[in-house]
Amino acid sequence: MPVSQQEATMTQTTAIQQGRERLADKSAIRPFHVSVPEAELTELRRRIKATKWPERETVTDQTQGVQLATTQALARYWATDYDWRKVEAKLNALPNFITEIDGLDIHFIHVRSKHENALPLIVTHGWPGSIIEQLKIIGPLTDPTAHGGKSEDAFDVVIPSMPGYGFSGKPTSTGWGPERIARAWDVLMKRLGYTSYVAQGGDWGAVIVDLMGVQAPKGLLAIHTNMPGIFPADIDGAAFSGTPAPSGLSADEKLAYDRLQFVYQKGIAYGFQMGLRPQTLYGIADSPVGLAAYFLDHDARSYELISRVFQGQAEGLTRDDILDNITITWLTNTAISGARLYWEWFGKGYFNAKGVSIPVAVSVFPDELYPAPRSWTEQAYSKLVYYKRHEKGGHFAAWEQPQLLSEDVRAGFRSLRL
Prior knowledge:
Blueprint: H1 5-27, E1 30-31, H2 38-49, H3 68-80, H4 84-92, E2 96-101, E3 104-111, E4 119-124, H5 135-142, E5 155-160, H6 178-191, E6 197-201, H7 204-215, E7 220-225, H8 233-241, H9 251-267, H10 269-276, H11 282-286, H12 288-296, H13 300-307, H14 319-332, H15 335-345, E8 360-364, H16 374-380, E9 384-389, H17 397-400, H18 402-413
Parallel strand pairs: 4-5, 4-6, 6-7, 7-8, 8-9
Antiparallel strand pairs: 1-2, 2-3, 3-5
Helix pairs in contact: 2-3, 5-18, 6-7, 8-9, 10-15, 12-14
C-alpha cells in the first residue's frame, strides 16, 4: 500500500526524535564507580613477584636510570603490603562520573562546594599521572574554611582523566592532542552548567591550560599554571640545540636556561621515546615493575623526591601515593594509550610561550623542571595577575605540596571572582 503523507511525516518525526534521544544519551552524565576484581589484584602481585631482575647499575648514583635497590624496595612493598582497596574507597567516596565528548568517554570527579558562589575550576593532571595527583587539593579548594581559608575563596572542583588515561576512554584514532583536550574541557564545564570558570594544570595540564588560554573560549575567566610556558622561541631553540646560554641573560634567566638545557639533554629520554615510538613500549604494559621504573624515571629532581620514600625518608609523598598512581595505570592498561599523547604533540613545544591572551596566575616551585623567571613570565603572559615563588616543592605540586598550591590557586583567582 502507498504510504500517505501523514504517515511519512510521522515516520520522519519519529526518526528525528530517535536521533535526538541518541545524542542526549551520548551527552548524558553517568555516575561511575571504581571496582577492581580481586583476581586482577592477585595477578598483579604474582607478576611483581615473578619479575626478572637485571644486575645493579655500575655507578653509585642515578645517572644510569632508576636504581635497582629503589625498584626492588618498591616491588617488595607493592607485592606484600600495598592495599589498592584503600585508594579505591577514597575514590568512591567522591562523586565520579563519565560523559561522552567528541566520541570519547571522559571520566571526571566533580565536587561541589558547600559554600555559595563557589568558583568553578577544572584541574588537569599530567604524565606519568592521573587523578591521583589532585586528590589532596579537593578539600582545601572546595572547603577552604576547614583548611585555613575563607568561604569566599571556595571552588567547585572538576578533575577529569585525560583521554587515554585512567578511567577515561582510549582514543582509537589519531587527533586527541592537547588542543582537542582543551576544547573538550570547555564542553565538559558547560555541560555541567557552568557559564564561567577557571582552569589549572601542571605538566601536561600546564600545556592544556595554556592552550585553553590561547583558544580563550567564552566563559573561561583565567588559568593557573605551575609549569608555565614562558621561554621565548629563540631561547627554547638554543637550549634544545645545546648551545651555551645567550649573553645578556639575568641570573634568574640563566638558571632557567641551564635547567631547561639539562632537561632537553639528560632529563626527558622518556618524552622522546613516547613522542617518536610509543607503540614499542610493550614492556610497560606487560610488566608492573617495568611500568613502575618507567614512571619513576621522570626528571632528576622528581626522581630524587620519589625514590627517597623507598629509602625511609618522606617529604610530601608516601609510598602509597606513588603506588596509587602507578597501580591505576596498570589496572586500566593505559600505559601505551597515555604515552601516545607525546606522539600527538611531539615537536610542537612544551615549555615555550604560546600567546595566551587571558588572565594568568603562576606558581614557581624551586624543584620544577625550571624556575620560571618573572621577566619571561611577564613577556609570555600579557595579563599576568599573580606570580609566586616558593622555597620548596617540585614538579608534582598538587600531589607533593597541596597546601601551597591550594593557597596559590585561591590567591591567584581572587581578583577575578564575579
